[in-house]
Specification:
- The protein is mainly beta and about 950 residues long.
- The chain has 7 helices and 52 strands.
- α2 packs across α4.
């Protein structure tokens, strides 16, 4: 299945034998255990000593939770005539909390010999899947620090692999290749293209730390290919119930002890736990054979053996090996960019003293660049400008440098030479900060083709089957996509503009129930090539493409039996810029029952992710949120998570500071490393990042109402840009609509107290919500809380529904009370008990109120007797577990809701009992995130918008703090 780049490997490993380890050398960085050490001028020069590290690589049977020991032999050879003695210090593995003592020390003497070898045990910490360990090694010559280097190794399970064989999921899934007839690790078999293939050890370089087995990396990236992987584990107990958590790109078969236990023909990108297969392990050796067929693009699989609840399985041993890690990617990264300078860091595979080369670059990009043509060809150096060359001075493998004398608002290409393999690195494109009085943004130009006349093949005889959808459907799509354009603009800090050109194709198309409509069936690309020239445009004019199909299906039961057309929605699909025409593609079905705003937001972020990947950028986070791969943070679902990614990319939030107040963005230069698009400059008199008057952009100072000559118009301590970013500018999300008066949803840059709550915007954690986040403790320390202790929380006022919410807490309960003139059709409340994000930890609760007695029940849902209230546990604490909702969780019996209904009032009190094991440790200072969404009886009053009314901005959590 083609996807942009989700599984990538940045280092090269050799698995088969003891080999020389790579050394990452930092001269003058100080001895282990010291900080800010400045070494004296050494009597020895780089190259006076040769250091080589050999790693013994035995394979041992062990559990993933066992600490193991590798053995390294460090040999120091004197190349100078000056005798010396010294010491080797080996530190604890970096990024590991529990290991050996702080460091080990080994002395050596090179006064009477030219070579000395020390043997050092390396404690290898437990690892759940495939792990990398880095040991800092410091070498002292006499009394002087000579060099500091890193020893890198991988701890991986031992698998065997054979392939590629001919054929993909549609042609070879059921073909019986020799491994299915019997395993002979010494045999050779005919492979793809007439080659001969043999069993080999699955390379450690292709076993990624997230548990992904990368067959492309192991077998050279063939398409339409099949491979087999062989794995053995030893079960210590009789008949151990277990399950396989599998994921595959594309189709997969699995045999356990020769019996086929899983068989799935599918075309997809691999994710952990896509398929869950219950098995029973027999005592002793259990053998697994995995077959994976690839149709094109990425290729590989996830394989994990768990207990039936998804937890790691005890008493299970596997063969584990150690192997070398050698750097092949210098990971060239910018760390700071100003108007006239750029700072960067990188690594090299061996110690060297490289040059930094900065070349002025031409504006724009060259397309098409695709296939085997490197993406570096997209940005060209200015042939008329002489390069700036800076010679570094430290002999090391961990490098930093700062280049000065650059011009403001100018594009450059930077590289280092030598980097890895003795060659110059790939060139990284960037822009310096704009000149005084200007701001700059990246404009990505997109082409969107809307197929307005697509009919399901089961509706061809209905009246109007060959007529295009009404223009209102097209206008709705464009209106929704404008919201996404505004969302990208605001949440990037006005650094990213998506400009969309539309072409409506009203020719008739007939399809089956294709999830992407015309997308990905070949007719989409044919339409692109045919229609663009008709409109005076070229394929190479764009940086991305979007195909939206308005699919018509006849419903004979609608309209009181007279029948009517409706527009079934579907999910979206995206590929990256690897193939022609050199930029990404997204496709989905649009229309009145779809949500093109959300699909555009989500799917194009996949394209953006790929563009920055192919621009040498750091990780632009993948927007399928899960805590075990650093994609989930302190945010809610959908739009809120996507907005957090934009914040993080510029530095408004970090891993250590994940929410408001936003930080001053020190990484905004990242947006301008993209090889696609065009960087535009516009007037910004006060240099606050907000364009002064730019009607072609989604928002500027003029429309926001701020003063373009001052950074903080109302002098309230919150800059105009931070007032813009006090919310996500999201009126409607995915099945959620921001309720209330829209005029109150945004900061007023000319009012120091935008929400009129008596707190100056610069001091207000939520300047758009007139809400006190402090929840006072009830008078009674335990037991049910009397109503007299409830304190006002928020007043919700919308033309479709009104309600008041109050909160209370004591040592036993956290209580939410809602009162309203009439009961809602239903209400949803999310509780993030640790206020750390909806996709983080085992502390998230989904509460449902259904006054009519139709609350969900069964499975993960636990409803009261009347089915007016239900609760489910959103458990994101188990690595690899998906779906996140936990059907095995049993709520405390005190978890309940109590309704009161009179002619004039409806109220409900929801009691949430304390449960410290799941985040509900009720104490002073505790912070809890709350999301409230209401479906009024009779609808939300907005005919063109679908979803519940949210008290706060859609998908966002409001943080309350338990006080005294």
């Amino acid at each position: 299945m083609r996807s942009s780049f989700e599984h990538s490997v940045s280092c090269h490993l050799e698995f088969l034998r003891a080999v020389i380890l790579s050394l990452a050398v930092v001269v003058g960085s100080g001895l282990l255990g010291e900080t800010d050490f400045a070494a004296a001028a050494s009597a020895f020069k780089p190259g006076d000593f040769e250091v080589c590290v050999a790693l013994d690589e035995p394979h041992v049977f062990a559990t993933s939770s066992e600490r193991l020991t590798a053995t390294a032999k460090i040999t120091i050879t004197r190349k100078t005539g000056t005798p010396a003695n010294g010491m080797i210090r080996i530190g604890r593995p970096m990024n590991q909390a529990e290991t050996q003592a702080d460091f080990q020390e080994f002395g050596f003497d090179l006064t009477k010999t030219n070579s000395a070898t020390v043997t050092a045990p390396l404690a290898v910490p437990p690892m759940e899947h495939n792990g990398r360990v880095v040991y800092p090694v410091n070498i002292v010559m006499g009394s002087e620090n000579y060099v500091t280097m890193d020893v890198r190794l991988a701890r991986t399970p031992v698998w065997h692999l054979i392939g590629p064989f001919e054929g993909g999921p549609n042609t070879a899934h059921n073909t019986v290749f020799p491994p299915e007839q019997g395993i002979d690790l010494a045999a050779a078999h005919p492979g793809k293209g007439g080659t001969s293939v043999r069993w080999q050890r699955f390379p450690a370089t292709a076993q990624q730390e997230n548990g992904f087995f990368n067959l492309d990396e192991a077998l050279g990236k063939p398409d339409e290919a099949t491979a087999y992987a062989l794995y053995e584990v030893v079960a210590m107990d009789d008949d151990m119930p277990a399950r396989l958590a599998l994921g595959s790109d594309d189709s997969i078969k699995v045999w356990h002890n020769g019996k086929l236990v899983h068989d799935k023909v599918v075309t997809r990108s691999a994710e952990p736990g896509q398929d869950l297969v219950n098995i029973t392990l027999t005592k002793g050796t259990n053998t697994f054979l995995v077959k994976v067929c690839d149709g094109g693009g990425d290729w590989g699989f996830f394989f994990d053996i768990q207990d039936r609840n998804g937890a790691p399985l005890e008493n299970l041993r596997q063969r584990i090996g150690f192997s070398q890690v050698t750097i092949t990617d210098p990971v060239l990264r910018l760390t700071e960019v100003t108007r006239t300078s750029a700072s960067l860091k990188w690594e090299s595979d061996v110690p060297n003293v490289p040059r930094v080369i900065v070349r002025k670059a031409l504006e724009g990009r060259a397309l098409p660049v695709w296939g085997d043509v490197p993406k570096s060809e997209m940005v060209k150096a200015d042939p008329d400008a002489a390069p700036i060359v800076v010679q570094t001075t430290d002999y090391t493998t961990r490098h930093t440098a700062t280049v000065t004398g650059l011009q403001p608002g100018t594009r450059y290409l930077v590289s280092v030479d030598p980097a890895c393999g003795g060659t110059e690195s790939e060139r990284l494109s960037f822009y310096t900060a704009p000149p005084e009085g200007l701001t700059q943004f990246l404009k990505l130009r997109l082409i969107c083709i809307i197929f307005s006349n697509v009919t399901r093949d089961d509706s061809l005889t209905a009246p109007g089957a060959r007529e295009p959808a009404p223009d209102s459907e097209i206008q709705k799509i464009k209106w929704e996509m404008r919201q996404t354009q505004l969302f990208y603009w605001v949440n990037s800090g006005m650094r990213l503009q998506l400009e969309v050109d539309y072409i409506v194709d009203d020719r008739f198309y007939e399809i089956d129930d294709a999830v992407y409509g015309i997308g990905y069936n070949g007719k989409d690309e044919a339409a692109l090539e045919e229609l663009l020239p008709r409109h005076g445009r070229r394929v190479s004019d764009y940086d991305g493409r979007v195909f939206i199909s308005i699919v018509k299906q006849w419903d004979p039961n609608a309209n009181s039996g007279a029948g009517a057309w409706h527009y079934p929605f579907g999910g979206g699909g995206t590929i990256g810029p690897e193939e022609y025409p050199g930029y990404g593609k997204s496709a989905w079905r649009g229309g009145s029952t779809s949500n093109s705003a959300w699909l555009f937001c989500h799917e194009f972020q996949h394209q953006l992710d790929a563009l920055y990947h192919w621009s040498m950028g750091p990780e632009h986070l993948f927007n399928h949120f899960q805590p075990w791969d650093d994609t989930a943070h302190r945010h809610g679902e959908h739009w809120d998570g996507n907005g957090w990614i934009f914040w993080e990319w510029a530095g408004y939030v970090t891993r250590d500071h994940q929410w408001y107040p936003l930080l001053e963005p020190k990484l905004g230069f990242r947006y301008f490393t993209c090889r696609w698009g065009k960087v535009i400059k516009t007037t910004d008199a006060d240099n606050d990042g907000i364009p002064d008057d730019a009607p072609d952009l989604p928002l500027d100072e003029k429309r926001f109402g701020s003063d373009p000559t001052t950074v903080d118009t109302d002098k309230d301590g919150l800059s105009d840009m931070m007032e813009v970013m006090a919310c996500r500018w999201l009126e409607f999300g995915l099945d959620e609509i921001w309720g209330g008066d829209r005029r109150t949803h945004y900061c007023n840059p000319r009012d120091p107290d935008s929400d009129k709550d008596g707190v100056r915007d610069g001091d207000d954690p939520y300047p758009v919500y007139p809400v006190n986040p402090l929840v006072k403790k009830a008078e009674n320390p335990s037991g049910p809380i009397p109503h007299t202790s409830f304190r006002p929380f928020v007043k919700f006022r919308d033309f479709a529904y009104e309600a008041d919410f109050r909160l209370a807490w004591n040592d036993d309960y956290f209580v939410i009370e809602m009162s309203a003139p009439t009961p809602p059709a239903n209400m949803r409340i999310y509780i993030d008990a640790n206020d750390n994000g909806w996709y983080v930890g085992g502390d998230n609760y989904d509460l449902r109120v259904h006054p009519k007695g139709d609350a969900p029940a069964g499975g993960e849902w636990h409803a009261n007797a009347k089915r007016t209230f239900a609760v489910a546990f959103h458990n994101c604490s188990v690595k690899g577990k998906w779906p996140f909702y936990d059907p095995d969780w049993q709520p405390d019996s005190a978890f309940d809701a109590f309704e009161t209904t009179t002619q004039a009032k409806y109220s409900i009190e929801i009691r949430i009992p304390k449960d410290p094991s799941r985040g509900l440790d009720l104490r002073e200072g505790k912070r809890i995130g709350i999301l409230i969404a209401i479906n009024p009886e009779g609808g939300n009053g907005r005919p063109n918008e679908h979803g519940a009314l949210t008290v706060f901005e859609p998908h966002t959590f409001f943080t309350v703090e338990l006080g005294n």
